[in-house]
Amino acid sequence: MSARTRSLTHAHPTEVSLQDALDAVGDPVRRAILRELAGTPDWTRACGTFDLPVTKATRSHHFAVLRAAGLVEQRDEGARRLNRLRRPEFDRRFPGLLALVLAEPG
Amino acid sequence: MSARTRSLTHAHPTEVSLQDALDAVGDPVRRAILRELAGTPDWTRACGTFDLPVTKATRSHHFAVLRAAGLVEQRDEGARRLNRLRRPEFDRRFPGLLALVLAEPG
DNA sequence: TACATTGTTCGATGAACATCGACCATATCA
DNA sequence: TGATATGGTCGATGTTCATCGAACAATGTA
Predict the structure, then answer these.
(1) Per-residue pLDDT at B69 exceeds 90
(2) Residue A3: phi, psi to the nearest 5?
(3) Residue B46, CB, less than 7 Å from strand C?
(4) B22 — contact with chain A (CB < 8 Å)?
(5) Which CATH number fits domain B3-103: 3.40.50.880, 2.30.30.110, 3.40.718.10, 1.10.10.10?
(6) Does the pLDDT at position B104 exceed 80?
(7) Do B18 and A100 touch (CB under 8 A)?
């Protein structure tokens, strides 16, 4: 594991409050990230490959929020940062919540 | 039905967006209202009987948000405004969401 | 009628947060 | 080595929204 990857602050869903989870999924850009992430296999999408109407600074902020909420796991692959949706863990902690997000139309 | 009751703007959960639902349950005061409401039978709690750390102006605002999100139904009984949690309707529209709120500690 | 209770509306205020541009760090490639 | 690509950090900005006090309306009660 690289030093960059090691420095990432992740939270496991079990240690996330309902408030933080709701705040995380309360933003439409973050929900778009989650839906796009759910449509492809784990560890295949870098942060920059998402189709989002915001600059990379904002994008980076949103990924940090998703990490802190236990929704996304990240790992560095060279210069790119790959993502994984923590679906089973998050589902166990907040049953039904992620399904609502993924079922939301576009 | 009184004129005051008639003038209340309710939304059925089916016509509520996920965004509005998440915004509604995203506030801790509103979640406290929902939990307190779930603990007593329908139409037995007036707005003023809830134990909340806000003034009545703020309280009134929160009830309006909950009405617009399809979470609470209201009816006037004299000078008091009684409430009902729209649990089955809301559950059908957003499965699992209300359960997360009601399961939240204190 | 006068008073108390219940709740809404209005305007103002303060805080939280999404957003941006600019700059920096690291990794890959020519 | 220099150039490009990917992504994070920082400070500033603007908007949204929860909150409040004050004024108002409607109901119930003495």
Answers:
(1) yes
(2) -65, -35
(3) yes
(4) yes
(5) 1.10.10.10
(6) yes
(7) yes
